[in-house]
Amino acid sequence: MLDSSFVAWCYYLLGAAGLFVFWWRLTRDIAMTKLQRSLRAAAAALLVCPFSIGDGYADMAPAILMVAMETVFEGADSFFRGGPTLLGSVALAIVAALLWDEYLVRRNRQDMVQAQLDHDRDELLAQSE
């Protein structure tokens, strides 16, 4: 039989996917691709980062919900239980997005250089015939 936390995570991830699709469409008009990818990566990390529900429990919950609930109900000091994990995952996602963007830029440059070399080679072959 399905575990209740598994079913809850399935429903949550379905809702998070809907929120992410909305965020994707909201950020599609941003011309700066680095900013666009960073915002999308941060949103994905905020939505799917898990965190333990408490000491001695094996179940996990979305970190954004845990941080929000603990901050509201237990005070601002409780932010430091799940907040660093959440902020760390967001920072890691942004760094990964920036590295991915740099990789794509370098690959695009290499493709352009290779296309120019192929074009020059074809011209030299055509001239030699």
Question: Could you describe the largest sheet, including whether it forms a barrel?
Answer: 2 strands, antiparallel
Count of strand segments: 2
* Topology as a string of helices (H) and strands (E): HHEEHH
> Hey, roughly how much beta strand do the residues contain?
under 5%
Terminal CA distance: 74 Å
Which structural category fits the helices and strands? Answer: mainly alpha
Whole-number count of domains: 1
**Unreliable runs, pLDDT <50, ≥5 residues?**
none
What is the count of helical runs?
4
Strands of the biggest beta sheet: in what spatial order? Answer: 1-2
Overall pLDDT:
89
* Gyration radius, rounded: 23 Å
CA-based shape? elongated
- Please bin the fraction of helical residues: over 70%
Notable features of this structure?
mainly alpha, 129 residues, 2 strands
Structural features, described:
There is one protein chain. The chain is 78% helix and 5% strand. By secondary structure, the chain is mainly alpha-helical. The chain has one domain. Helix 1 packs antiparallel against helix 2 and helix 2 runs antiparallel to helix 4. The longest helix is centred in the last third of the chain and has 50 residues. The mean pLDDT is 89.
